[in-house]
Amino acid sequence: MKEYAVVGSGIGGSSIAAYLHAKGHDTVLFEKEPYLGGCSSTFSHGPYRYNTGATTLAGYQDGHIVKAMFERIGFTPELIETDPAIVILQNGRSVPRYRNLESFLSALEKVHPHSKNRAFWTLVHTLSQQFYSMNGHYYTNRSLFAKGISLVSYLPLLMKFQRYLRTDAYTFIDRFFGGISPDYQAFLEAQIFIVAQAKSREVNFFTAALSLGYTFNETHYVPGGFSRLFDAMTASMTDLRRSTPVERIEQFEDHFVVHTKDEAIKARNVILNSTVYESGKLFNDDAIGDYYRRYEKLDNHQSSFMLYMTIKSDKKFEHHYQIIEEMDFPYTLSNALFVSFSDENDDLLAPKGYYSITVSIHTDSRRWNDAKNYRFQKKVLGNLLLKTICAKLDIDEAEIVHYVSATPKTFGRYINRTQLGGNAITMKNFLPKLPANDTPIEGLYHVGDTVYAAQGWPGVMLGVQNLTRLLHV
Fold first, then answer.
1. Inter-residue long-range contacts of 254-262, CB under 8 Å, 24+ positions, other chains counted
2. Cα–Cα distance measured from residue 458 to residue 450, given in angstroms and rounded to the nearest whole number
3. pLDDT at 424 over 80
4. H/E run at residue 241
5. Residue 429 and residue 455: Cα distance in Å, rounded?
6. Contact at 8 Å (CB) between 378 and 407?
7. Triad 333, 338, 340: Cα angle to 5°
8. How many CA atoms lie within 13 Å of 166's alpha carbon, on the beta-carbon side?
9. Is the preceding peptide bond at 440 cis, omega within 30 degrees of 0?
10. Which of 132, 267, 426, 443 lies at a 20 to 30 A Cα distance from 241?
């Protein structure tokens, strides 16, 4: 009998499985696809390779959660530091998001001058640094009493940041600046949305500050694509089952049975890296189903439309751009594109002289349920994004050697989820309402972006760290 069965190899699943194995626990990791990483994986389309969704590793530096967890696993990734972390393109002008505050402010003032810029961005910088220096808080959902005790651990954090937790980000920013231009608001909004996965009116200012401040931390590019990182992280595992979808899970008195097409594996504990909205489908047990049904309302159906391109070009590109337009793109929720380029020396992800490009934009998964218009919408949006990127980044369409697009339905087919970006911590969905990394069901646990703490590498790794505490490992 296995001690732990981990279902899903996304950021959370791969990390906790590698950690448990490194600590000597008999662990099996199941992955539906032949590659690891879920929506943070790398895939091939024809002869070309692309990062599926996530293209930036944030939080890998001294004092931050990602590096701390990697060190506990005993894993040192191969990385390239990116600075600027991203270049914002808007109305024919660009603002590089440099890690150094002074360098960023100098670039910002040329495009969005304001007398309160220094005070605002110094606050953002300070809040980001202070938050990651705090520890000792944890979160459990094992019982109402245990949850209450865990919430007490947040008192130091709440007392320190309470001013920024009470007000939504849009209102706080408007009051702080005394009003800003629509272009500056769009500049801020696009960056908050891509990190927090919610608009400024929906999140508190503290969450927005962490989103705006992520570029003041080290950000990294992963040579060869993200799946290569997951392969290296789990390389020492002795029981890693790729191309093995889990069909159902049975609960017994002191263990679970994980059923695949070809076998049934017993495990004392199960850790799911699936969305909390849909995990109940794996079980027939009424109590487990009732637990998961309470969180179905958290599914905001937010997802991504993706465009993957390969170009042959001798031009030099930054690793990441955000292109902000005046109006939302059709069939989407946003006016901003996130465009990521492979490193010019990364021959593993793209041949020499070529670039692998991953483009994403927020959409609502329900907009892609109309079978009659599905292909038309996909073609229209894909072509529009392609033309926009070529125009804004000076790419000749003759340089494009391959491209393909993906919708929420595509993600549903390959990684069993259409909602992407996870469970944003909003004004209406704060800690007491969030699902935790444990459950009231003995031996059943969760990691990933739909449970504590949030999305992205730092958020998911905070959840992995939280789970190690709850497991006492």
1. 255/1, 255/443, 256/5, 256/443, 256/444, 258/5, 258/7, 258/30, 260/30
2. 14
3. no
4. strand 240-241
5. 14
6. yes
7. 155
8. 6
9. no
10. 443
Q: How far is Cα 21 from Cα 396, in angstroms, rounded to an integer? A: 48
Residue 189: φ, ψ to 5°: -60, -45
Q: Is the pLDDT of residue 188 over 80?
A: yes
C-alpha torsion angle, residues 45, 191, 389, 455 (rounded to 10): 10
Rounded Cα–Cα distance for residues 453 and 196 (Å): 12
Question: Dihedral of the CA atoms 67, 72, 73, 74 (nearest 10)?
Answer: 80
Can you give the pTM of this predicted structure?
Answer: 0.96
Please state the rounded mean pLDDT for residues 10-23. 98
Q: 3 with 219: CB under 8 angstroms?
A: no
Tokens of 350: 């793209």
User: In this structure, what token pair is assigned to residue 393?
Assistant: 């980044």
Query: Could you give the CA distance from residue 274 to residue 146 in angstroms, rounded to a whole number?
Result: 24
Token pair in block for residue 188: 């801020």
| Six token digits for residue 468 | 């190690």
Question: How many helices and strands (H and E) does the chain possess?
Answer: 14, 19
Strand 264-272 and strand 444-446: the pairing is parallel
Across residues 53-68, what is the average pLDDT? 92
